[in-house]
Structures are given as C-alpha cells and as structure tokens.
Amino acid sequence: MKVVVIGGGIAGLSLGIFLQKSHIEVVVNERAAGTPGGGHAFLMHTDGLSVLKELVAGTGFKLPGKLVEKFSLKRPDGEEVQRLQLDAWQCIKRSDLTHFLYGLFDGEVKNGREFSHFLYENGKIIAAVFSNGEVEYGDIFVGADGGFSKVRQAVLGEVEFHPGKVKEIVGIAYNEKIAETYAGTFSKFQKNTDGLAFGMIPTSDIELVWFIQYDPSISELEDHSVEGLRLFCKKLLKKFPPIVQQVLDSNDFNKSYLWNTKDFDLLPAFHKDNVVVIGDAAHLALPFTSAGTTNAMVDAKTLAHCLSAASSYTEAFQEFYNLRAEEVLKHVHLGRALRNVFLRPQDQNDDDIPIPLIAGKTKEKDKVMDKPIELLYFTDPICSTCWIMQPLIRKLKLEYGIYLDIKYYMGGMLPSWELYTKGKIQNPGDAAEHWEEACACHDMPMDGDVWIEDPLQSSFPPSIAFKAAQMQDPDKALAFLRRIQEMVFLEKKNIIKWEHLEKAAFENGLDSARLLRDYQGAGKQLFEQDLELAKKMGVTGFPTLFFSDGSGQQVTLKGLQTYEMLEEIIHQMLPLAEKQVIDTDPKNLFCHFPTMTEKEFAVLSNLPKERAAMMLKELYDTGNISQFTSKNGIIYISKFDCIHCL
Ligand SMILES: Cc1cc2nc3c(=O)[nH]c(=O)nc-3n(C[C@H](O)[C@H](O)[C@H](O)COP(=O)(O)OP(=O)(O)OC[C@H]3O[C@@H](n4cnc5c(N)ncnc54)[C@H](O)[C@@H]3O)c2cc1C
C-alpha cells in the first residue's frame, strides 16, 4: 500500500512519521519550495505533547519549544485578575515544529508540489497531479493541506465557512530584555468592556510571539500596508500598558499578518473512496481553543493506527471518523463558546474567565462518580494528628477511593492562643514540645521549632485560604492544603503569612490573584459555615471523620486511627467493597502523590521502613526524585514525568 500525503504541515508530516513507523510506504507532497516556515507559534498542552513524545521516542531528538509555566491575565490598567502556574504547557514556534518534524521524517518530502487535481481510472483516483505538472501515483490519498484544503474541495465539495467575528494579528518581536523578564510566562491583557486582548509569550531568549485578538466592530484595519498595520495595532492598544507598546515597537511588521478567523461545521465524513482528509483540512475550529496543532497530530496518529490495524482502507477511514469526530466537534463548539465570551466580557465574572487550553477540560472533571460512602473529614492545616494520618488517608484513597466521596471541612482548631483552652497545650512552647514528641512516636517529620522561631497566632488564615482554594478547584485545594502542611511541619514556615499561602497556591495551579480576592471575601463565609457545621456535628478534636452510606448508617471516628479501623468501617458499610491493588512501582506512587515522606512511601509500598529508605535513596541517586531535609526527617519530591502515568 502506498500513501500519498498532500500537505507537508503538522498533520501531513506527523502522519508520514507514524506511517513509516508502521512500515507503510508514504510520500509527502508540499506546496512550499522548502520547509514551510510561517511566523506564529503554538501553545500546546498534554495531549499534543504526548504525541510529540511518542514521535520522538528512541530518536535522541530534543522536543522543540519553551516551557510556559505561568499565566497572568491583567486588565489594561494593570489590575491582575488571574495568576496561576501551568502544568505541561509548551510554546512552540511553528517553524521550529515543522523543522523538527522534517528532521524526524526519514521518507521523501517532495517540495514545490501544489496540488491541482486527481487523476481517475475506472472511476477510482489513482494519482495526484500538481500545478508544476508532476504526478504522484498511489493507493490512498490524504489531504493534509490545511483549512482551505483543495483536496477536501475536490472530493467532499465546498464547505460553508462561518466567520469567526474576531480577528487576530500575530507577530514575533525581538527584545532580549522583555524575553528575559517574561521568560516562561504567558501574559495576557484583556479589556473587560469589549472584545480586545493582547497576549505574549517568549519563545526564546531573544524573541516573543504576540497576538492581538479584536472585535472588528471596535475598529477595522483599512490601510493594509505594513505601516498601516503597525499604526492600527498601536491605535488599538493605545490604552494598554507600556510593556505592550514596547513589544509592538520591537516587532517587524513585515512579518506580521492579520488573520480572519473562521470555522466550519463538522463534516458528515472525512473520506470518500480512497481519499481522506486530516488536520485543519478535516475540521477547523476558532483559535480560542489553541488545539488545532494537537488535533492535527492526534489525527495523524489515529489514522496511522487505523490504517495498520484495519483490513481495508474503507474500514480504516470509517474507524478514523468514529474515533475523531466527537472530539473535534467539541472543539468547534468550544471555540464558538469562547469567542462569544470574548466578545461580551462584561457578562463574565472575573472568576469565570476561561483559560486557554484548560477551558473545556475542566468540564470532564466536573463529572463526579456516585460513590456509595460519604466521608466528611474535619481537619485543620496545623493539626499534627491530621498530618500523622496522612499516610493512611493516602492509602485509603488508593485502595478504597472508588467507594469514598471525601469532603474536606475546616474545623478552626486555633482561633488564637487566648481562646485556645483545650488539653495540655496552652502556648506556642507547648506546641513545639508536642510536635517533637509526636514526630518521634509516629515517624512523620515535624519540626517544632516553628513555634519558637515564628509562632503562628491562629490557624484561621490558612483555613480560610483552603476554603478560598476549594472555590476554584477542590483537587487543587487539596494539593494546596498538603503543600501548606509541608511548609509548616517541615519548612518551619508561618503559614499565616500571605506570601507562603500565595506561593503554595501558585505552585499547585491555583489562580493566586483570585485566591486573594476570595481569601478576603467569600472564603471567610465558607469557613464560617464549616465552623457552624463542625459545632452542629459535635466536632471537638481533629481529625474527625463522619462516615455515612446514604441508608442511615453512620460512624464517627475522632482523632488518631489505625488503617484497620478505617477498613473495618468501609466493610461494615459496604460488605462487598474490594480493596484495589496498588501498583507500587515508585513512579506510579510518585505520580499519584508528588511528594512523600519516608513513612508514606513505606506505607503505600507495603515495605518495611529500612527497605523503603533504601529505595528512596536509589531513586534520589538516579535523579528520579529530589529531597528536602528538615530537622526531623526528609520529604521526597517527584521528578518523574507523569504524563503517561496513573
Ligand atoms: C494565527 C494562528 C494561531 C494559531 N495558534 C494555535 C495555537 O496556539 N495552538 C494550536 O494548537 N493551534 C494553533 N493554530 C492552529 C494551527 O496552526 C493549525 O491547526 C495546524 O497548523 C493544523 O495543521 P495542518 O497540518 O492540518 O495544517 P497546516 O499547518 O496549515 O499545514 C498545511 C500544509 O499544507 C500545505 N498546502 C496547502 N495547500 C496545499 C496544496 N494545494 N498543495 C500542497 N500543499 C499544500 C501548506 O503549505 C502547509 O504546509 C493557530 C493558527 C493560526 C492561523
């Protein structure tokens, strides 16, 4: 079987590489004379990166692009409305990606071949003819020739393009100072009164890719000359901060261009007879989803797989459509939804502004499975018993998590030292002593010196911050809680201080600008509600665990527990509950829990302490984990690449 690919862009080249891997003969035909260049850059997230990693596996090639670690959204007046750390985002210049793919593709790319039409024999397509008169014969033809695909037009007919109602101007600016200052940050400035935004991301030490998205009803480009475009950009962004002006001033407008966004509805089929279309040729979404490149590569991978697995190309093409149509349709709809939000920012609350790439993915996370047992877990960030229970709670999640819906509440353990009247701990000095003793007994590192060096006066501020974090994302809030526990128990950080709370939020993907708003506002009310509930339910110590199964069975546990006790309650409520087998491969454990103490690792791996310590040392020596050493123990931090994990 010989496959003739038309279009040597992202989709075409990726397909060529995947087909070669499957030992299928392939020829790629590209209109451009050499490697297609093109100015702009892509943002790519996990799905696209994992395809790239698959392409590169075993070749020794380095992935192109720069990691983008932070996202900051500001208003033109400088007010920051979102600030968060990103995970696994990469910014890749289009030309770097195509060069990279050309480098990986061992086969033949025939340049200077602009597709003109097909040659038929007995009603079947047997060859592609190019404008330069050259002809390529083959068995299967793949149109990977972009959104305005001539191949699609030839076999599937005209599509109806829907205007995107938003225009985009893109460019690459050269400014070492700005590239250095903003390295790793996607900065966006967006108006909240009408549809106008400016974004920029450094793509190297000296250059930045930037874009303007605008609603043409605000203003429209009339003079299409290079100088006309420059003046238009300056006029549009006149009220934006000086940094934006500096980027525009460092830009070569000869290489910038205006892009009229458009999309088309999902096609009823991606193929006809022995011709199939992939990438933008098959589906075109508005740019707000930033997913076009990823979709092009996933298409290539899927089609290559279908072709090598199916018994005929008809079956392969049908399977390809079945596998891809639903996903790409989602992007078309999401692109339109995000466009509508962009055009009417005044309808949008600051907290709900969708973040590129992440928008749409969160929806899936919202689907919570119905779990038969509810566990209300009352805790406090500085509760030492809660910290000691961490290994058991983590194990419980892995072994019985499918049955348990755990809900976290803050109990307000330490309003202030004046109001703290429980037990033998009366002041920070007592707390220091207690932590040292508890650490010695239970093997979870705790450094009581924080109570001597920089004592916390209350546990309310970090509790409120946790509630504020929950408003954004319950999972990230838990990671945040874990981080502030590590800060206070191991790093002796006074987690009342906003600087620590902000750092923990940022490190765990929370929007720290929003967290501050909620910390000062609605987070306080949620915390008050938790306190009321705790009072109503008779919570007097921590942790307190309320198990219920929806049929009236309820069990309450107070304070330190054994794992057997927790298991017993689950079996009592759900006799048929089966313990899930934990994959104790350290990589898997660290992908679940990116930081672990020695005790946690031992408990989760079912290993004796000494053996666990040896394994952790090996992992450390081989560079798979790093560590933070505190006075009373170590915390190990994953360096594993977890994209394919879990
Ligand atoms: C301004 C802008 C910003 C974008 N930002 C992002 C982003 O941040 N993230 C993201 O994932 N996606 C982004 N995209 C979308 C992304 O560029 C496309 O989805 C992706 O390039 C699609 O890959 P493709 O291979 O299908 O098409 P293309 O990359 O367009 O490749 C098509 C290839 O076919 C060739 N060709 C065209 N016609 C013919 C012909 N008749 N004969 C032979 N060859 C032909 C072209 O020269 C080209 O090399 C952006 C697009 C634009 C325009």
TrEMBL record:
Query: What InterPro entries is this protein classified in?
Result: FAD-bd, FAD-dep_Monooxygenase_BioMet, FAD/NAD-bd_sf, Thioredoxin-like_sf
The UniProt entry's coiled-coil ranges are: none
- Domain of life of the source: Bacteria
Task: From the Swiss-Prot or TrEMBL record, give the protein name.
Answer: 2-polyprenyl-6-methoxyphenol hydroxylase-like FAD-dependent oxidoreductase
Molecular function GO terms recorded = FAD binding; monooxygenase activity
The record, for Pfam families, names: FAD_binding_3, Thioredoxin_5
Classification via Gene3D superfamilies:
FAD/NAD(P)-binding domain, Glutaredoxin, putative protein disulfide isomerase domain
* Domain FAD-binding: residue ranges: 2-310
Provide this UniProt record's keywords sorted from A to Z: Monooxygenase, Oxidoreductase
Organism equals Pedobacter nutrimenti
What's this protein's family per the entry? Belongs to the PheA/TfdB FAD monooxygenase family.
